[in-house]
Amino acid sequence: MRIWIKNSLMIVLLLVISTSVQAQNKNQLKKKRQEIQKQLKKLNGLLGETKANKRKSEIQLLILRKKIGARQELIAAINYEVKYIDQSIHNQEDYIGTLNYQLKTLRTQYSKMVQFAYKNRNSTNKLIFIFSAENFNQAYKRLNYIHEIAEYRNYQAKEIETKQIEVEKKIIELESKKKNKILLINSKRDEHTSLEKEKLEKKSVYQALRSDEKNLKKDITRKQREAKKLQNAIKKIIERELKEAMKKNKSNDKFELTPKAKKLSDSFTNNRGKLPWPVGRGTISGKFGNQRHQVFDHLKTINNGVDIITNMGTKARAVFKGKVVAVIILPGDKNAVLIQHGSYFTMYSNLSAVYVQKGDEVDLQEEIGKIKTDEDRKTELHFEIWKGNVKQNPSLWISKK
């Protein structure tokens, strides 16, 4: 009896561990699916804003490509979740089969014990069994044996009831999993329908943009001129500010940061990969470095930071505490703010309104300006990070969303 109880407890322990792992995996899969759905909802909002302008634009093509990528990832996640549920259903059916077998075994054993107890229900038989022992020690063991049989019979009755309840519970869980699988399959079918619509829409926007190569090239040239002008202004300001922020070390003829500036610079360095985004919500629309044009592969652009598309009316926020060293006025309400953080600088451009001025001390995530919405109804912030005169990849500094 004790061995049977020990084995039962071991089985229960293994099942608890297995159930815990399954629940964790299930929650992870569900969380991933919800994150992708949240991303798609955000992209839908951004696309809706740009569609208010009937003219096809590059930003619409970019958002559609991101939506298609996210939709494909969502379908893959649903597929994985369905496979997981299939395996879970298989395991559940096996487990129910095991429980039913255990239940059948318990009932058989219990039936035999009841029959045995009925045949030996006479107390005289029990006394004869005890007193027919060869010695006192054997008689004592026989007495204990009778008690253990009675206890075990009661235990088996309770165990049968428990197993029956557990079987019924697992059957309900199994039905729930099967229903969940059907819902996921239906969801997958809907996502495929949406994916095909988005592919057709992307093709339409792409073809419209392809027919306007001349104007696209003019637009790229204009943006490159503006970017170069901004870069030259930033470099001059950084050189000026570094000289002012440093003091001459007479012992070795080198320039060093002041203790306060060095402390701020070290703190900025320690937050690499953890800096907050310069907007409350948004998605990367332009990566750092050399980029291939999304319509014409032979056209190349250089990005000195990252571009982040966001919703209309969004405010730009400082990613770290520091000092405003310049407010750069650019044509077409595309103003920029440069903030110093020791030997580091962050730059926020394409602002239609600026809330700070040169010399202001700003705190972490303080609003510094309103991001401009252009004629294509695109609201996009250009963000850069510099260490001295060396451009950094902002994607390596801001946190992963």
Mean pLDDT: 80
Q: What is the top-level CATH class of the largest domain?
A: Mainly Alpha
CATH topology of the largest domain: Helix Hairpins
Kindly estimate the percentage of residues that lie in beta strands according to DSSP. Answer: 15-25%
What does this structure look like?
It is a single chain. The chain is of the alpha+beta class and 401 residues long. The chain folds into two domains: 2-210, Helix Hairpins; 218-396, Glucose Permease (Domain IIA). The protein has six helices and 14 strands. The protein has helices at 2-50, 58-119, 123-131, 136-210, 213-245, 259-270, and strands at residues 246-249, 254-257, 283-286, 289-292, 300-303, 306-310, 315-317, 322-328, 335-341, 344-354, 361-362, 367-371, 379-387, 390-392. Strands 3, 6, 7, 8, 9, 10, 11, 12, 13 and 14 form a ten-stranded antiparallel beta sheet that branches. The radius of gyration is 36 Å and the shape is elongated. It starts with a helix and ends in a 9-residue tail after the last strand. The relative contact order is 0.10. The model has no long low-confidence stretch (mean pLDDT 80).
